[in-house]
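Form 7-S
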Amino acid sequence: MKKETYQNYINGRWVKPKSGAMIENRNPADKRDLVGLFPASQGEDVEAGVSAAIEAYPKWKATPAPKRAEILYKLAQILLDRKEQYSSDMTREMGKVLKEARGDVQEAIDMTFYTAGEGRRLQGYTTPSELPNKFAMCVRQPVGICSLITPWNFPMAIPSWKMMPALICGNTLVIKPAEDTPLSTINLVKAAEEAGVPAGVINIVMGTGEAAGAPLTTHPGVRLVSFTGSTDTGRIVAENSARTDKICSLEMGGKNVIIVMDDGDLDLAAEGATWGAFGTSGQRCTASSRVVVHKKVYKKFVEKLTERARSLKIGNGLDKKVEMGPVINEAALRKILHYVEIGKQMDGATLHLGGNRLTRGNYSHGFFIEPTIFTDVEPGMRIAQEEIFGPVISIIPCRDLDDAIRIGNDVKYGLSSSIFTQDVNRAFKAMEQMHTGIFYVNSSTIGAEVHLPFGGTKGTGNGHREGAMVSSLDIFSEWKSIYVDYSGRLQKAQIDEFKIAK
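Output:
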């Protein structure tokens, strides 16, 4: 069988990496299935991509924003028309079940349509001057050349969160997708090419983080770096960016919590925890990796969650009956199993369900692990503090709401949290006191929508938010304040004294 070979996209052309080296991309549900060979790019490929973006920047910046928006509308429609194809490609290369892959593609569609609408706004504002015969206003302008470094778990949605606002603001860009899932980003870029994005405006350079990602954080021609990934890697990105005074936007890890009160709907809470912990095989920054449960309903909740988790059908995500697919690769599987051992041996928690790699039959060809539940977990245990990024959930008892909020906040991350309760007072208290960027009432910790800000506090990021136009535009545009003095003389703000006529 012929191996499908893919190329970088630089200055409107699909080109081989300079070294000729390639990386195999295999289906994590079936290692026998070779998705394709993808470029193992290095610094010289990054240089070519950035150079193309620099060359294309003046014309794209000069293109009126409503015209840029027209291209994005076309792009959104192409994504919509090819949703099934792109979803199948995503499941094959990433492993998430088909309905979740459709959701990933739909998020890219939503983001593209939504951002296109901003082409006729990109609003600044006018404001009164403190001096007479003087007009004051501010407008947005593009930042310049953007490096976008994206993860493997949402291989079309997250690139769209970064790419679309960057484009509508008038920036040009180089994107480096994760080496585990480049095909979905290629599909996005091909759709953009077909929609009419000019050559050099979007460039894609594939490869490892060390060889292709790092040069994108240090290149002197790059003005902005937008990164989504682990907290440890994010710190390196921030350090590299700071050396040349780049704008740096980081969206990193999470250790998210569901609070279940004694008056909560336990069936709904168990369903929410199942979806939050085991959806995408737990490989989300917003995954519900902790559940803090009131001691009065602890045992009953554990029973309901166990019953639901035990019933999950695990397998190849292209099977419509499957509810949970594999994890992304062997290294991820080993990390998760290592944390299972930490939970059992070092932390002393109770392994209530799962914790094993699945190896029989077709499972032997993929990276499958059982849905895993730990009970009798103490808040300070490593499995309750560190991001595992797999289908592992820790259930922690609490005395009351104050205790639950304390436990929920006592981690280094602050991305997402939720509460299940029928008491509006409890809901609002938790809403106010949980130190997270996202909060849900009677729902899981996952399910963000593109028109609200996405991001977190503490170790989750550096204060920026993606999604929601004001938030994302503030990353990909810069403010310019403009003063127009039509007094006919030199006026000196804060020095000239304006006297009110009597």
